[in-house]
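To: structure subgroup
Subject: Chain for Friday's discussion

All,

I'm putting the inputs and outputs inline so they're searchable in the archive.
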Amino acid sequence: MYDYIEILMHIAKKGLFDVIKTSTLKIASELDVSQQTVSRDLRDMEKLGLIKREATPNGISIVLDEKGIDFLKKHFNELNKIFERKKELCGLITKGIGEGSYYVGLDGYQGQFKKKLGFKAYPGTLNIKVDEKDALSFLNSSEMIGISDFSTKKRTYGTLKCYKIKINGINGAIVVPERARHGKEIIEIIAPVYLRDKLGLKENQKVKLSL
């Protein structure tokens, strides 16, 4: 039913609980789609109970049905969870794949870390397993700092997205490689110190990140 969200929002903007007098031609023009598409979608939406419509001498009248309003509410709530500001994120320490020390230690990255993040990073990353939706909300609440790609004689190294954070009070940053090798449930942390030793961290231990 997500195919109909654009038309439902269009109707809701004109009056969430009002009867809207319009025409398929007008809706098609306003949404920049074909009149045939609008006619088909309105017919299907009526069958699904999302709207009520009635032909008039000048076009059609449309009102959102209760099911249509509930659908918009659900869509809004899901988007709100993604974009709401989340200032803390909890996760569990997990084992990495052993490549962080090599990539983080490269001079092409370290110089940019110092300039843009304010510290040279310990050559390695701390991997934390988190809830994907919570992580997305957390990252959306922080400013993204871009780390540019660079090349050596042997190869090119990709860009990084960085987000300044604190982990148990220590300054650090989440790094998201252009070509990440982990799933989205794993985030990588860099810091000026070896976090496992500094904080006495162990596998599966819970940690809290903050902005």
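Points worth raising on Friday:
The first strand starts at residue 20 and ends at 22.
Residues 88-210 form a domain with the Elongation Factor Tu (Ef-tu); domain 3 fold (CATH 2.40.30.30).

D.
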